[in-house]
Amino acid sequence: xxxxxxxxxxxxxxxxxxxxxxxxxxxxxxxxxxxxxxxxxxxxxxxxxxxxxxxxxxxxxxxxxxxxxxxxxxxxxxxxxxxxxxxxxxxxxxxxxxxxxxxxxxxxxxxxxxxxxxxxxxxxxxxxxxxxxxxxxxxxxxxxxxxxxxxxxxxxxxxxxxxxxxxxxxxxxxxxxxxxxxxxxxxxxxxxxxxxxxxxxxxxxxxxxxxxxxxxxxxxxxxxxxxxxxxxxxxxxxxxxxxxxxxxxxxxxxxxxxxxx
Length: 261
What we know:
Distance between the termini: 40 Å
Helix content: over 70%
Strand content: under 5%
């Protein structure tokens, strides 16, 4: 009887955690579906807006085409779904935060809140940077190098795959300061140790940009240079995070005070 009670007592928290995880996932998926249903009516307008940098770069008789018959419907539909994910991202991250927050200490919660907020902001900033800064010169470059006897007519599906790849690449790349601060706060590496690895980081930034962007020096540089700059920003805020952390002596004093009272 005692063994059965102990087994039930130990297994219950696991079941509760799994149930809560399921509920969080259902809420996240439900939020994406609700946003998608609210945007699907304007799917063509959303695609036209996202395609503006490409359309402005096209000259003469060049225009976008649809090779597949179903692409005129599925491509804006697919883009709207990803836009719904982008819009619902703060709520999705909140669900993650609400799930892991009870397991964090007070000082960890103090750092986790700004980290989550900054990760959302930097992700949106990366997408905005890709749309307003990166896409126009890339498309102008490809239009400029097109031979005179060739009309540039990009397929809408291929174009969508390209911009989604760039959006995710820049959105994730702009999370470098957050990842750097986490590594420093967790004690995995120090800011000085990261600074010593700067030459390797610069090379890695250009290698990653080479695989995540079209094969031209403009788009690669527009991703690699911001990644390097964000790495330097991460080192700076990592130093600030260490300074703000309570020292071991302070923690010990607080513990002694609590035990005394």
